Amino acid sequence: MSALSGIRVLDLSRILAGPWAGQILADLGAEVIKVERPGSGDDTRGWGPPFVKDPDGVDGQEAAYYHCANRNKQSITLDFTQKEGQQLAIALAKQSDVLIENFKVGGLAAYGLDYPSLKAINPKLIYCSITGFGQNGPYAKRAGYDFMIQGMGGLMSLTGHPDTEEGGGPMKVGVALTDIQCGLYSAIGILAALVQREKTGEGQHIDMALLDVQVACLANQAMNYLVSGQSPKRLGNAHPNIVPYQDFPTADGNMILAIGNDRQFRAFCELADCIHLADNPDFATNAARVKNRSELIPLLRQRTVFKTTANWITLLEAASVPCGPINNLQQVFANEQVKARGLHLDLPHPTFGSVPQVASPLRLSKSPVSYHSAAPQLGEHTEHLLTELLGLSSAEIAQLRTIGVI
Fold first, then answer.
1. Using one digit for the tens of pLDDT, what is the confidence trace for 278-306?
2. Taken in order 78, 79, 84, 89, is the CA torsion positive or negative?
3. Please, which residues bridge with residue 87 across strands?
4. Which one of 3.40.50.1820, 3.30.1540.10, 3.40.50.1220, 1.25.60.10 gives the CATH number of domain 245-326?
5. Are 250 and 309 in contact (CB under 8 A)?
6. How does residue 31 score in pLDDT terms, banded at 50, 70 and 90?
7. Cβ atoms 102, 18 nearer than 8 A
8. What number does CATH give the domain 8-216+342-402?
């Protein structure tokens, strides 16, 4: 049995952070109902190219972006700005265990879909709000987006080459990492609230903010600042606390060296025919190497260029020195370890035949993640849900379509 079997989630969220949290819960066995606008749905359905192709190789109308965060869900189209739509959304919330939303603070109160209103009819409801800045504070009413939060939350001050180097300056991460992290924290909060509900019988409100998550995920860099009072600088691919821990050129490209202790550094120097560097007091310890990185790194680069990436990896792995290639995504999905872990899978789809997916990294021995469907078509399950959950007749559903509620 799936870990979250029997849990129903009403997902009112859009774009990435909320849908990512909903997909995690769906992978773990929850029934996730995605509520979308009639006619258009989640904005990311149109965020292409690339678009998923049908069996004949023709582009469909659904972007790959949308399919990254919405598998294992059901889609219902519902306009809850209309009175009839509000009533249906409230009825669905009454029968749900969890609700996820990412509207502006206070935006759902006008429709009776805010937490106080729904708590009154469903005290067991766990209500997760995802916003840019949280439910309180001077920025609470502002909209928040991943890119701007990466900047405001300090991540871009740490990412990119130093200003003194060619191409230097702040840089965002290559994926919407703040959204992803917020989705992960949201799922964790929801799971914790479900455990708490088992003890008390009561639900609760979860207040998630992109800015909070970004600052929390600064990890050692935040602590470096809080302890030293000095704002860390951009170091490109280098590490602020460990040296050498960055990219190095090879005879045919580049590789990563991730040396975490003095033994590993000595082992590398032996293989690179520069043992004198490990014996040098300026480089013998990690603290010394961090202090003298500007002198050490050019000396190491002069050594790494004489072997290919594959040669280095073979030698360094045999000596237990952490290292690796810098792969593009074609190389990632061709990698034997990625294949062995089953990270690429295909899920059935009524129009496209199948849709490629990246598997969940969760590996549970007793209640494993399960996959049953690709992301749903817009409104694919509307009639089924209105009939099975809310008991509407065919005539009532037809009338709702006529007035544009569904």
1. 999 999 999 999 999 999 999 999 999 99
2. positive
3. none
4. 3.30.1540.10
5. yes
6. very high
7. yes
8. 3.40.50.10540
- The token duo for 144 is 């928040």
Amino acid at 94: K
Same fold, 8-216+342-402 and 245-326: no
Query: Which residues are designated catalytic?
Result: 179
Domain boundaries, the chain: 8-216+342-402, 245-326
Nearest to 76 by CA among 18, 40, 108, 36: 36
Q: Which residues touch 190 (CB under 8 Å, ≥6 apart)?
A: 21, 25, 98, 100, 126, 128, 206
Region for 122 from its dihedrals, namely left if φ exceeds 0, alpha if ψ lies in -120 to 50, beta otherwise? beta
Q: Cα–Cα distance between 284 and 146 in angstroms, integer?
A: 41
pLDDT of res. 56? 87
Which residues on neighbouring strands pair with residue 349, listed in sequence order? 353
Helix 309-318 vs helix 262-271: crossing angle, to nearest 10? 130
